[in-house]
Amino acid sequence: MFELTQDHEEFRGLVREFAQGEVAPHVEKWDMDAHFPTELVPKMGELGLFGLNAPEEFGGAGTEHGGFTYTCLAIEELGRVDQSIGITLSAGVGLGINPILSYGTQEQKERWLPDLLAGKALAGFGLTEPDAGSDAAASKTRARLEDGEWVVSGSKAFITNSGTDITSVVTVTAKTGEDENGKPEISAVMIPAGTEGFVVEPAYRKLGWHISDTHGLTFENCRVPEDHLLGERGEGFKQFLKTLDDGRIAISALALGCAQRMLEECTAYGQERTAFGKPIAVNQGVSFQISDLAVMVEAARLLTYKAAWLKDEQEAGRRSVAEVKQAAAIAKLYSTEAAVTSTRIATQIFGGNGFMEEYPVARFYRDSKILEIGEGTSEVQRMVIARGLGLPAR
């Protein structure tokens, strides 16, 4: 059965120290200014956080010193301090690096991975479109081969890490034709930042994740060499579904960090805040809610790290892809809904103070809702779980 090792816990302590020293003192101002701290990314790279899933050949930690569980620990600890910083790592690894690592040619890996793993660059993942979210097959972005180049036209929406000063490449899904059955052929194409016709739209005004970099992207007859195809032609949709399966575990870890922080904040506030001459935690209306938070955190932690352990086991050939897919959906569904509930409870316990930006619960309240949407909505997770149980599809 899975369990965290002493090495895992020591690594957790290392990331927690980093988060408290390099992130916590600045997040209130970064959030207020909607500032993406480009200078923080190389520091995360120096700590090895972007390379925990990657081989030493390209600058990663290798199998002996890394793995998916380590990545989830890092995301949880960063997310415990600030959700935007947590998603920067989660998207940087899961959506930026992993597709190249999993499906790239040796030449593509040698070109892009060293800087990405070192935190000198970031990569984006372009799947969602203005009219194609969960229904990714409805993508309208097109790519056609012309004189040895892919000509890409279309748009993408809500793309993380796509417009920073150090964004080096964005991989996008596009229709490249039709298969033998007349169904859309979807492929993945890598588009380097700065390519002519690659337009990064202004940053969104978001409810939360103010520190995270998020943009819409437009491609206007954007030309890249034919060898910028990532993986096999026509396999892009399958590749990105697999990428999302892994990313759901990472989002579960991010949600866990949120719920853990709310538990800590409420436990401390319940003892410090007094009403009628006594700490408010003496009231069962408060203490029972904090107890419920503790249960949710414990359950989310077990589901998250079981899924992460299964992913590591699957990489070693000891577990199936189907097991990981099901565990990822369960963990993501429970943990993200628990995170949203935890911020609502925390805001209620803090009362008027919970509505004030001077208290971190307000920021976490704003940041949490997107957890139930990104990487597949809660409704999509329930569909995945139902299919995993063998229930008939619609």
TrEMBL record:
Family (UniProt): Belongs to the acyl-CoA dehydrogenase family.
GO molecular function: 3-methylbutanoyl-CoA dehydrogenase activity; flavin adenine dinucleotide binding
Keyword Nucleotide-binding applies: no
Keywords on record: FAD, Flavoprotein, Oxidoreductase
Domain Acyl-CoA dehydrogenase/oxidase N-terminal: 5-120
Residue ranges occupied by any Acyl-CoA oxidase/dehydrogenase middle domain in the UniProt entry: 125-222
Cofactor: FAD
Gene3D superfamilies registered for this protein in UniProt: Acyl-CoA dehydrogenase/oxidase, N-terminal domain, Butyryl-CoA Dehydrogenase, subunit A, domain 2, Butyryl-CoA Dehydrogenase, subunit A, domain 3
EC number: 1.3.8.1, 1.3.8.4
Protein name per its UniProtKB record: Isovaleryl-CoA dehydrogenase
Domain of life, source organism: Bacteria
Xref: Pfam families: Acyl-CoA_dh_1, Acyl-CoA_dh_M, Acyl-CoA_dh_N
EC category: oxidoreductase
Domain Acyl-CoA dehydrogenase/oxidase C-terminal residue range list: 234-389
